Amino acid sequence: MYSRYDAGGPLGAPAFASDGAVSAAPSNRTRTPEADHMVKHPGVEKVALAYSGGLDTSVMIPWLTENYGCEVVAVVADVGQREDFEAIAAKALATGASECRVIDLKDAFARECIVPALKAGAIYERRYLLGTALARPVIARAQVEVAIETGCDAVAHGCTGKGNDQVRFELTYKALAPHLTIIAPWREWEIHSRDDAFDYAAARGIPVPGSRSKPYSIDRNLWHTSFEGGILEDPGAAAPAELHDLTVDPIDAPDEPQDVVIGFDGGVPVRLDGEAFEPADLIVRLNRIAGAHGVGWIDLVENRLVGMKSRGVYETPAGTVLLAALADLEAITLDRDTAAFKRGVGARYSELVYQGLWYSPLRTALDAFLDEAHATVTGEVTIRLYKGHATAVSRTSPYSLYREDLATFDEDQVYKHADAGGFIRLWGLPSGIAHRMRSSARQTGSPAEGETAGRGSADPAPRERPPHEPTARHRTGGSRDTTPVRG
C-alpha cells in the first residue's frame, strides 16, 4: 500500500519561508553546462530519493534539483517509525520534489526481515539486534520499484560515506536494478558535516529536525530506535538521560514485575498473552509493554563494515523479549546438534545482514535451514519483565524433547544408571589416548608404551641412521633415491 502526493495534487507544492510561512515552491530544475561539470553523474533526468524528512534528506531534494537539474521523486518508507507522513510528504514537495510516495512497509518489514532474523538469533557482535540494518533491504527494494514505475534513471540515498547504510542501500540497488545510476550526495557535495547541513537548510528556509546543540542522528522503525552522534562520539562520556524513546530508565520502571506470554508457531511469534496478532502488530504492542519496564536499552561500540568503530544507543524492547523467548522455546524443541549448528548460523546471519548482503545466496540458503529447523518450534514461553530484565520463567510445547521421566533425580523405570559407565569409557576413549600420547611425548620425547600410532606391535621400528651413514644416492651416484641403505 502507498499514498501518492504530487506537486500539483491535493497538497499542492508549498514552500517554507524562513518565518515558517508557506508559499509556492520555485522550480530549480534547470541544468547548466557548469552543473554538468560539477556533478559525478551528468545527464541524469529523474531520481528516486529515499526520503525520511530528516536533516540529510531534507537538504538533498534542493541540492539535487540545483546541481543535477533533475526531477526528484521522494520515496518515504513507513517501517513503523511513528511519523506524520502527510507532513513529511508536504515538506518533500515544498522543497522541490515533483512527487512523493509514502509506502506502508510495516508488514513486509516484520515478515520478510524481522522474523527470519529472529529465527536465526541474529545479534551482531553478540549485542546489536540489527534494527537499522534489517530495514534497509525492504526500503531500498520499494525505492527501486518506485524508480522503475515512475521512469527514473537514477536512485539516491542520504547515507554518509562513513557509514554502513550506503553499502546496504547500494548492494540492494545493484541486485535488483543494476541499470539505475546511483547518486550518493554525501560522497560528492560541498556539505562536509551536520553543521554544514544545518547552514544549507537555514539558507533555504528548510525546516529540519534536531538542532546544533542536540545533533543526534536518530533512526526509528518497528524494531528499534537508535541514537548516534553528538556526545555519543566520546566513548568516555555517559549517554544523556534524554536518549530514551521506546524505553524508560530501568530505575524509573515499575517496582512490580510483569509476566507476558509469547506464543510461537514454527518459530514465528503469533500470540501475546493469548491474543493472536500479526507479527508487526505484536511487535508494536510488546514494545509498549517491555519498554515500560526498561527492557531493551543498550549503549554499545560496534565495528562498522567500513573499518572504524562507532558508538550508538539502541532500544529494542520487543526484540529483546522475543529473542529471549524463542531461544528458551528452542531449548526444549531443538535437538542438540541442530541447536549447536544454529548458533553458528546466527553469527553468520548477523554478519550478512550488517554487511548489506541480504540478497546473497547464502542468506537465502540459511533461511531454508532455519525454516526447517523451526518446523516444530511451536509453543508458549512466559517472560518476566522487571527493571530492564527479560527472564524466561516457564515454557511449554507439544513438540518438546524434554522428558521428565528421563531428567528426574527421583527413582525411575526408564534410565539405567549402569549404562553410563560404558558410555563414558567409549566417549572418552579418543581424548584419553591422545592426552596420554602427548603427555608422554613431552616428557620423554617418545610415545607412551603400547600406544604407538600408525603401525602394529609386530612392525619393527625403523633403524636410526648414524649421522654420517651414506645414503643410496651417495653410494650409487643417483639423483633421486635418497633412502638410507640398510645394513
Q: Roughly what percent helix? A: 25-40%
Q: What percentage of amino acids are in beta strands?
A: 15-25%
What is the CATH homology-level superfamily of the largest domain? HUPs
Q: Please state the average pLDDT score.
A: 87
Number of helices: 14
Q: In order across it, which strands form the biggest sheet? A: 1-6-5-4-7-8
Number of strands: 17
Low-confidence stretches: 9-27, 455-462, 471-487
What structural class do you assign from the helix and strand content?
alpha+beta
Main sheet specs: 6 strands, mixed
* Whole-number total of structural domains: 2
Give the overall shape, derived from the CA principal axes. Answer: elongated
Radius of gyration: 31 Å
User: What is the CATH T-level topology of the largest domain?
Assistant: Rossmann fold
| End-to-end separation | 90 Å
Q: What is the second-level CATH architecture of the largest domain?
A: 3-Layer(aba) Sandwich
CATH class category of the largest domain: Alpha Beta
